[in-house]
User: What shape does this take?
Amino acid sequence: MKGPLFYSKILLFGEYGIIKDSKGLSIPYNFFKGALKKDENPSKEAIKSNGYLKEFVSYLEHIQIEEPQLVTFDFENLKNDVNVGMYFDSSIPQGYGIGSSGALVAAIYDKYANDKITVLENLTREKLLRLKTIFGKMESFFHGKSSGLDPLNSYLSLPILINSQENIESTSIPSQNQEGKGAVFLLDSGSTGETAPMVQLFMEKMKHEGFRHMLKDQFIKHTDACVEDFINGNVKSLFGNLKQLSHVVLDNFKPMIPAKFHQLWKQGIDSNDYYLKLCGSGGGGYILGFTQDIEKAKNVLKDYNLEVVYNF
Assistant: This one.
């Protein structure tokens, strides 16, 4: 048995800001994927994943008891499948900010939810918000608190525009220009990041008035502008706003940036060869980069593992 594939995602813009109603833009990233599977001779990883699934099933039973009007599952089949060793076979690295738990949540909902909202129907704003709420509840098992956006992206496999917490829509982004010199890329920090402690740190910072002002007047302002520029293909304006955003993050989100990347981050801003930003909650995993000249950026960053995600 092998179920349908669910892909990783990249939140291009909106990390932390969407907690406070900034805009956000999330795109599927098909390089990494996962599917529900059963094997005759499971590997060590498969057995470990199956153990997680058992815990997850207990958690989903609690959700159904507490909020039966929100979502119900076909537990008979789900439990049978888990008891005979079903696991989530995934190439999505965990703790890298690209939605490993989101893909798993999407796969379970797709196969076992009753009366599920499907990708084929007319996805009204109400339906998208309902899905996001369901997925947020489900994914909270992994992160303590989840917006539900990662599973939503994985489930729909469409770019999602977040206008605010209560206003999301599927959107289109400019087609990739494979000949283009500009690119979005991922840099491997070489270590994993944990979402929950990073979000906790952010919430602590939010208690300070100065940080709240910075978030509203600078971080959210530049994030919103980047989203608009990216969707509308305004490359020149995009890079102006990206530089500002990269600066704001370096100045105010240092703990979320792995220490060995502080200098590299600043070097990008000073040279204009590339701009870095957080990919997900930070603390490790991938770092997101933008450049107007990918060959130049590759050369400058040749000591790092760089993966191109999008060309323009």
About this structure: The chain has two domains: 6-170, 183-311. The mean pLDDT is 93.
